[in-house]
Design goal:
Elements (H helix, E strand, L loop, with lengths): L1 E10 L2 E11 L4 E5 L6 H8 L7 E6 L2 E2 L7 H7 E4 L11 H11 L5 H14 L15 H13 L5 E5 L7 H16 L3 E5 L3 H7 L2 E6 L2 E6 L1 H6 L4 H10 L1
Parallel strand pairs: 3-8, 3-9, 6-7, 7-8
Antiparallel strand pairs: 1-2, 1-4, 4-5, 9-10
Helix pairs in contact: 3-4, 3-5, 4-5, 5-6
The structure holds adenosine-5'-diphosphate and magnesium ion.
Magnesium ion (MG) binds next to α1.
Keywords: ATP-binding, Nucleotide-binding, Transport
GO molecular function: ABC-type amino acid transporter activity; ATP binding; ATP hydrolysis activity
Protein name: Phosphate-transporting ATPase
């Protein structure tokens, strides 16, 4: 579903992604962790080409993102993205936030888009918030709306960039629970997170990045119980 072949990216002099080779299968749940500034956000932003690369190749669902005729609109419809900051439209209700892209991009009928939005609000456990504005919701509720909004495009892949980092502790689990449900339903997911409980429980693979490099990649059991590199050990000793 996602393939990186010897990917390099620079921001000016900064070699932010260095020789990244990575294959993610359909239905796989991959957690990416690593210190701040190691290139995690840049890496997942490359998957829907929010960031161009300078060397190597990225293929997403059989589309070569470097091809001159790559259809970015299609790509971004297929790849949902949930950020640390929820980025909901403040002047729109929850229902309007969720139906906007299905109406505009998928050209769905209003009736179908609203039925879908209501079903997704059930799924993220806030069916009663359809008419609320983002400012009337808690952070955890806003993030669940953001997930529902991503799912409304019926994506093949969901990307999460530290989706719980801006939340108060008591709201983290309500967001992780939704992500766990998605994972169990077979969604292909790439999650940048330091929630190691989530990684242990539902991920198929954990990737550790440092200094723009993919340092270690393993099953969660091996990653946590038997980390290979010194840098991974040091990182885990700080966060566990
Ligand atoms: P992480 O998500 O692991 O914290 P990022 O991918 O956000 O790391 O950033 C990796 C490095 O690239 C950092 O040193 C950051 O300052 C730098 N960086 C990120 N975005 C830009 C940008 N648009 N322009 C220049 N440097 C950037
Ligand atoms: Mg980041």
């Amino acid at each position: 579903m996602i393939e990186f072949e010897h990917v390099h990216k620079w921001f000016g002099e900064l070699h932010v992604l260095s020789d990244i080779t990575l294959t993610i299968q359909k239905g796989e749940v991959v957690v990416i962790c690593g210190p701040s500034g190691s290139g995690k956000s840049t890496l997942i932003r490359c998957i829907n080409r929010l960031e161009p690369i300078q060397r190597g190749r990225i293929v997403v669902d059989s589309q070569d993102l470097g091809a001159p005729d790559v259809n970015l609109k299609m790509l971004r419809a297929e790849v949902g993205f949930v950020f640390q900051q929820f980025n909901l439209y403040p002047h729109m209700t929850v229902l309007e936030n969720i139906t906007l892209a299905p109406l505009m991009v998928r050209k769905m009928s209003r009736r179908n888009a609203e039925d879908l939005a209501m079903a997704l609000l059930e799924k993220v456990n806030i069916p009663d918030k359809a008419g609320a504005y983002p400012a009337q919701l808690s952070g955890g509720q806003q993030q669940r709306v953001a997930i529902a909004r991503g799912l409304a495009m019926k994506p093949k892949i969901m990307l999460f960039d530290e989706p719980t980092s801006a939340l108060d502790p008591e709201m983290i689990n309500e967001v992780l629970d939704v992500m766990k449900t998605l994972a169990r339903e077979g969604m292909t997911m790439v999650c940048v997170t330091h929630e190691m409980g989530f990684a242990r429980e539902v991920s198929d693979r954990v990737i550790f990045m440092d200094g723009g490099k993919l340092v270690e990649e393993n099953s969660p059991e091996e990653f946590f119980n038997n980390p290979q590199s010194e840098r991974t050990k040091e990182f885990l000793s700080k966060i566990l």
